[in-house]
Amino acid sequence: MEKKRQTATDVVQRIRGGGFNAYFVGGCVRDIVMGRTPIDYDVATDATPAEIIKLFPESLTVGAQFGVVLIPREEGNVEVATFRSDGRYADGRHPVEVQYAKSAEEDVRRRDFTINGLLYDPLKDKVLDYVGGQADIRGGKIRTCLSRIGINQTACGVGRSGGKHHRGSQGKPPGSFHVKTSGLF
Questions:
Q1: Average pLDDT in the 122-127 region?
Q2: Hey, which bits of 84-149 come out as E strands?
Q3: In the chain, fewer beta carbons within 10 Å around the N or the C end?
């Protein structure tokens, strides 16, 4: 196992040893599913920032107000975020308030795209997929997670991809759009 992944797995193991749930989340899981080596690893947990800081006293509170703590490691920093369900947004990207979620499933349903809404349990070597991200990877699709709860991408500012896209035209379901993937799939 490569060093960055082992480091992130050790973080998950320590968090679990403290009595909490913890999983890899987001782009690193997408990359694992696609057979690629992730650049970095993010962890999602039900532990609060204060609880993470107790487990990792060397932590940096770079985004604790949003439930995010950075654990510095020689092999690469590991970002740990508390499961959350975002409240309203001031600018379409940054939440005015953050509410902690009760479950990993609730956390991933608030994420941007289904392919980034995957969880991975590195201790059991198991992907958890509550949003259909694996099927979208296999099908070469990029869809918003928010469309699954009735919010269309126009309302949530889907421009996060930074690419040109066509919103829901040509009979595509809400939350689906075409984007040039530049070899993503």
A1: 97
A2: 84-86, 98-100, 118-121, 126-129
A3: N
